[in-house]
């Protein structure tokens, strides 16, 4: 199966997918990496793995819709079976969702529906929850609201800082991403209400 991965930052989730795809038995490989900005480690990781990249910067398009159309076209060129937002910090638009909404997934660093948005670990710490984690879900038109594929929980420890909690979540998040993407592409999926069932 063909994976296109979208990134905006360090790309450690991308790296986990690149490493997993080295084994043909995994059943999926990263065929392209897209970004909304230049100069990020995620693009370097793709280049180091010999994977083609593209960059669509919002402000180089006259409107948000034109950016969305360009991103949609660039992703479509690589004929993905699954498109993965892995730390991609942009909300896609209607055209992208019309093209890929049945195959566009995102990994978020909280146990949704708690703590959507940019600061999952910080918000979890501030609230005082004892369990934090990561959620993999199909993207819909909302912010961190689509049907859930998988969740993993990690403890919040008494002396946690935002950094230590973020790292603990990210370790679990990477394992979950690799395992769930493998199952999705090998076994397929159906969406029932808010849940994604893997046969
Ligand atoms: C992930 O924890 C993701 O949930 C959050 O940003 C992080 C991306 O990390 N939105 P990386 O770029 O994959 O290292």
Short description:
This protein has 199 residues and is of the alpha/beta class. Helices cover 37% and strands 24% of the residues. It has helices spanning 12-21, 41-48, 64-77, 94-100, 120-127, 162-187; strands at 2-7, 29-35, 53-55, 82-85, 104-108, 131-138, 148-155, 190-192, 195-197.
Task: Explain the overall architecture.
The protein folds into two domains: 100 residues, Formyl transferase, N-terminal domain (Rossmann fold), CATH 3.40.50; 93 residues, Formyl transferase, N-terminal domain (Rossmann fold). It contains six helices and nine strands. With 199 residues, the chain is of the alpha/beta class. 37% of the residues lie in helices and 24% in strands. A seven-stranded mixed β-sheet has the order 3-2-1-4-5-6-7, with helices on both faces. α1 packs parallel to α6. 38% of the residues are buried. It is globular and about 45 Å long. Bound molecules: 5-O-phosphono-beta-D-ribofuranosylamine. The site of 5-O-phosphono-beta-D-ribofuranosylamine has 15 residues, from α1, β5 and α6.
Please count the helical segments.
6
Roughly how much helix do the residues carry, as a percent range? 25-40%
Bound molecules: 5-O-phosphono-beta-D-ribofuranosylamine
Catalogue the unreliable spans: none
Please tell me the total number of domains. 2
- Architecture (CATH level 2) name of the largest domain: 3-Layer(aba) Sandwich
Q: In what order do the strands lie side by side in the largest sheet?
A: 3-2-1-4-5-6-7
The count of DSSP E runs of length 2 or more, i.e. the number of strands, is 9
Radius of gyration based on Cα positions: 16 Å
How far from one another are the termini?
17 Å
The succession of helices and strands, N to C, reads EHEHEHEHEHEEHEE
Taking the sheet with the most strands, its summary is: 7 strands, mixed
Strand content: 15-25%
Query: Which CATH class of the largest domain?
Result: Alpha Beta
Q: What average pLDDT do the residues reach?
A: 97
CATH superfamily of the largest domain: Formyl transferase, N-terminal domain
GO cellular component, one term: cytosol
Binding site for N(1)-(5-phospho-beta-D-ribosyl)glycinamide: 11-13
InterPro entries: Formyl_transf_N (IPR002376), Formyl_transf_N_sf (IPR036477), GART (IPR004607), GART_AS (IPR001555)
Enzyme class: transferase
């Amino acid at each position: 199966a063909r994976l296109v991965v979208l990134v905006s930052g360090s790309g450690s989730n991308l790296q986990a997918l690149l490493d997993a795809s080295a084994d043909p038995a995994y059943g999926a490989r990263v065929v392209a990496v897209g970004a909304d900005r230049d100069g990020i480690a995620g693009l370097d990781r793709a280049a180091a793995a010999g994977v083609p990249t593209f960059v669509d910067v919002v402000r180089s398009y006259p409107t948000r819709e034109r950016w969305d159309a360009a991103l949609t076209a660039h992703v479509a060129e690589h004929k993905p079976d699954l498109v993965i937002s892995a730390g991609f910090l942009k909300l896609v638009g209607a055209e992208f969702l019309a093209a890929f909404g049945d195959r566009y997934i995102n990994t978020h660093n909280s146990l949704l529906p708690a703590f959507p948005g940019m600061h999952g670990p910080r918000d979890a710490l501030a609230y005082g929850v004892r369990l934090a984690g990561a959620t993999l879900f199909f993207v819909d038109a909302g912010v961190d609201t689509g049907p859930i594929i998988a969740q993993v929980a990690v403890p919040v420890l008494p002396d946690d800082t935002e950094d230590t909690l973020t790292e603990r979540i990210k370790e679990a998040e990477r394992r979950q991403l690799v395992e769930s993407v493998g199952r999705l592409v090998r076994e397929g999926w159906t969406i029932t209400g808010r849940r994604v069932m893997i046969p």
